[in-house]
Batch of 3 targets.
Target 1
Amino acid sequence: MMRQDWIDMNDELAVTRQCELASVSRATIYTHQQPLVVSEDELLLSRLIDEQYTCHPFYGSRRMVVIISAAVGYRVNRKRIRRLMQAMGLQGMAPGPNTSRAHPKHPVYPYLLRGLEVTRPNQVWGTDITYIRLAKGFVYLVAVMDWYSRKVLSWRISNSMDASFCVDCLEEALRNLGKPDIFNSDQGSQFTSERFTGVLQREGVTISMDGRGRAFDNIFVERLWRNVKYEDVYLKGYATVDELLPGLGEYFVLYNSQRPHQALQYQTPDAVYASASGGGAMIVDKYAEKTAVKKQSIEIPKSPNTNADAALLDG
């Protein structure tokens, strides 16, 4: 048995630590993962869904049916589209019944960032998972990002949505870059799992989770996925995990250290993270604003005449 066979992706011990104990490179472990293989027809539908979702993450299965059916030239069943979206870990960013369901036994934490101004590195980190298509299948990509500088702190790929690669990604970021005050994620079962939240609790990090149907709660990581796909994945058309790993590695080096960001006054994330200047973030509570406007629009102005007020209300 080879040493890489000692690594168990489902073990409670983080993959990073297993690799250290076995003296095995983590890249070796992830390279030997096999992508999920799907039929040519479903691969085409998945590719079209991925492209549409990257452009319009608020599209749900109903809109996807219309768009995809027009693209392929025949009617695609909504149940099929919904099944593919679930397999890819995608859902429309809009309130609706039974959406954004976390694991029923996992605790869900409140969203703490609405209206908070992020003024320094390591104040807030965020994470998310996206789907990466290959020539004959697909894998999942997770990343941890610093909200102040937009720097990608760590990333991992996996052929399943198991929590292990998310925990491994988090452990690397904490080991190499310290820890944040607040860590934000969505309500996916990977991030609500005891293994993932236990790492954050161990480090004394405050946990925040997106509200259901809140499209802007994790907008910085969503923008990262759009950049990754349009600037790298779609252009290069990776066929295998062996090609994807070094390709993404090169892209994230470019993203962090060479690519100027308009939101950072055309500095790089590495420079902003190191200098603690030129970055920043703030999620405005658009939902509270809308509620306030609605309440204001229906508010009845008070009159000094009490009887007139009563008559107005009765009318």
Note: Strands lie at 36-37, 117-118, 124-133, 137-146, 152-158, 182-185, 206-209, 281-282.
Target 2
Amino acid sequence: MVSTDTLLNALVASGDQALTLDAAMVARLTEAAGDLAVNLAIALVILVATVFASRWAATATRRGLSRIRGFRHDPTVLSFAVQVVRVVVLLIGLIAVLQRLGVQTTSIIAVLGAASLAVGLALQGTLSNVAAGVMLLILRPYRVGDLVNIGGHVGKVQRLDLFFTQLSDANNTKIVAPNGKVFGDFILNLSGQKTRRMELKIGVCHRSNLHAAKTSLLEAATAQEQVLTDPAPWAGVTNLLPGSVELTLAAWTKSEDYWQTRADVMQAAKEGLEEAGVEIVNSAPIPLAVPADAAQPGSVSRAKSLRRRSNPRSASFETRRDDPNEA
């Protein structure tokens, strides 16, 4: 039979062992919490440092590229390169933060590799915009400050980034176009060349003196200082319409002076033709008048009935016989 002292000693020993295990567990939990707090603090510091480092790298990149002659006056490349550098620095800092928190980089790469197909399908539009932005930067169909026509929208390029192209039209309306659609559509760079030709089509009466009209148009163009002398302005008859004779005036000017010069030349051409006694008429073809009942249902049958009633024989009218022997 076990004595009482032996039972007491066994209970005391088991209690001491439990206290030792609890103390060890508390110590481990305290150590883990301390390590987690330290890692979180260091990760937070790394994250903050990454944000400041990305800004500093972007500024340094802008300054460095500004010193290069080829990129000094090209804000498109500057803004694009600054954004790429900023994103790369942020990605490096994010990987460092994850490693500090105990996340293995190899496992992250494995997970991304396994989910690459799903991510690619979900972000195919975004990735295509990024790829199109890179191609636009390499091919340079337009630059910041150019006047372009993209998808029927005319505006000045304000910004080109990784995903979008930002335009501003004549009404100062902000237009944001995805790079994927921009790269896949027609791009008309209206200010891509140094000079631009204007073409004015004016209709005059058939009875007008065409020689005087051409002379007036050429004088109206050459009188403007913004019109270039080389190539010289040209005017001539380009079409004969039922209600008018179409004259075309072509003149060259600098791209930045196009719209104002076009307006001035058009005003001067109108005033010159009026002084020369040349009548300006609409150069568009005259539309044919269509009866109101022609487009209504049954108009054909009504027209046939009217023709039958206008014909005495078809209406069963008795006609006077000129020949009494006629049967």
Note: Strands lie at 147-150, 153-160, 164-168, 174-178, 187-189, 195-204, 234-240, 245-254, 280-281.
Target 3
Amino acid sequence: MASSETLPSPLDHETRLQEHDHSALRLWLRLLTCTSLIEASVRQILRTDFDSTLPRFDLLAQLDRHPDGLRMSELSQRLMVTGGNITALADQLESEGLLRREPVSDDRRAVRLRLSPAGRERFAEMAAGHERWVVSLFEGLSLDERHQLLALLAKLKPGLVEGKRRAQALRSARGRPRAAGASRSAA
């Protein structure tokens, strides 16, 4: 039987690779491919099982973690999307009775979003399904392998954060403005 390295696979990020490519490039594209496949699976299941989207799920998850609610600007930062995206999502979720808008006492311009009781119930159903799906996506790895992978990624992460910090410092030192990153679409 052929190894997983030689099995034909659908077109993905790894199809860009050539035999002589550096192992770091190969690893990056493998991680990107796996992330894309996981995200696509979760998006599809949210759509088919709950008639929802990943951005809606992410917004509900943030509000579930903060029972006192969050300002729309806080949600925008946490979800790394524009305020307009949060407003559009909030409009949809409010019209479905899943969240409430409340004024912020110390800032007349700000609005705090909170899950409604129906929103808490709906999110609990979605979160349970989400957890089952994600667990099933990793069934190809043993418990020990999942722990090893988690430990390796934990070791990698600080270096990535530091690399990002160094790149930003270098851009600033060169007098280049920080590039306006394209925010993820929330709809």
Note: The two ends are 43 Å apart (CA to CA).
